[in-house]
């Protein structure tokens, strides 16, 4: 009798086909994010969640050898490269010992309006930052905060209250020498200030920023009442804010100031605002020295890293993620050193 033709074992076909399907969908999603950017709800949300749907590719690549399928390997190659670009720095940072002592500790925290002071109290007591960039502080909360934290942070500056009923703040152990409002921001942007500190004779310009909030899945009426408008318009506002803050940081650095831009960007790594800020000389401290993804939005682990500390004229030494308390965000703490 002639030999029976060999068949690929059935158990291999199912995981192979699932891997190919995942790879094709992940690659298509990556193209949508990079081409459409934040202009559509779907592409914006895909960008926020990118770390979750790209990370599986890193696990699947080794398993494609078991399938003996070039198609499966080719399908997951692009998302695996993208996942490596997103997560690779954190693995490499674990292998790099810290040799520099920190001179300054800066933290950013979106306290989430009306959520109370538990997360803020934990941040101050456990990590004792020298400078705090705060977002979503309602005017009614300032009196209590100023009373409770005045001894620790005698120098405090608050922005003008936004149309959403909250504002940003900079608290410092070091004297504030000047405060000036940021001009040139697009319509729908929250107010922001440049707060200049005297840090033992060195000028440090601090911007506490909160980029335009998205109006995801909003009805036309809700979008019309949102300060930044629809998802697409809010995306354009965030890009305009990022461009203005990036240009301002360059001007401040050229004038001799070290610069900290810290806050809630409502954007993750694959969203345009963070790319814009990092493209013009600002260093993402967590990307530079962090050892975990640091997904700050939502209960730990969150779904996106939207809270950042960016610096120019300072060297990142270490970063960590604090406890959120009652907030919907986790604080980010960055240890920094003066160059040289």
Automatic annotation (TrEMBL):
<dbReference type="InterPro" id="IPR036691">
    <property type="entry name" value="Endo/exonu/phosph_ase_sf"/>
</dbReference>
<dbReference type="InterPro" id="IPR051547">
    <property type="entry name" value="TDP2-like"/>
</dbReference>
<keyword id="KW-0255">Endonuclease</keyword>
<feature type="transmembrane region" description="Helical">
    <location>
        <begin position="71"/>
        <end position="92"/>
    </location>
</feature>
<feature type="transmembrane region" description="Helical">
    <location>
        <begin position="20"/>
        <end position="37"/>
    </location>
</feature>
<keyword id="KW-0460">Magnesium</keyword>
<keyword id="KW-0227">DNA damage</keyword>
<keyword id="KW-0234">DNA repair</keyword>
<dbReference type="GO" id="GO:0004527">
    <property type="term" value="F:exonuclease activity"/>
</dbReference>
<keyword id="KW-0540">Nuclease</keyword>
<dbReference type="InterPro" id="IPR005135">
    <property type="entry name" value="Endo/exonuclease/phosphatase"/>
</dbReference>
<dbReference type="GO" id="GO:0006281">
    <property type="term" value="P:DNA repair"/>
</dbReference>
<protein>
    <submittedName>
        <fullName>Endonuclease/exonuclease/phosphatase family metal-dependent hydrolase</fullName>
    </submittedName>
</protein>
<keyword id="KW-0269">Exonuclease</keyword>
<keyword id="KW-0378">Hydrolase</keyword>
<keyword id="KW-0472">Membrane</keyword>
<dbReference type="GO" id="GO:0046872">
    <property type="term" value="F:metal ion binding"/>
</dbReference>
<keyword id="KW-0812">Transmembrane</keyword>
<feature type="transmembrane region" description="Helical">
    <location>
        <begin position="43"/>
        <end position="64"/>
    </location>
</feature>
<keyword id="KW-0479">Metal-binding</keyword>
<dbReference type="GO" id="GO:0004519">
    <property type="term" value="F:endonuclease activity"/>
</dbReference>
<dbReference type="Pfam" id="PF03372">
    <property type="entry name" value="Exo_endo_phos"/>
</dbReference>
<keyword id="KW-1133">Transmembrane helix</keyword>
<feature type="domain" description="Endonuclease/exonuclease/phosphatase">
    <location>
        <begin position="118"/>
        <end position="313"/>
    </location>
</feature>
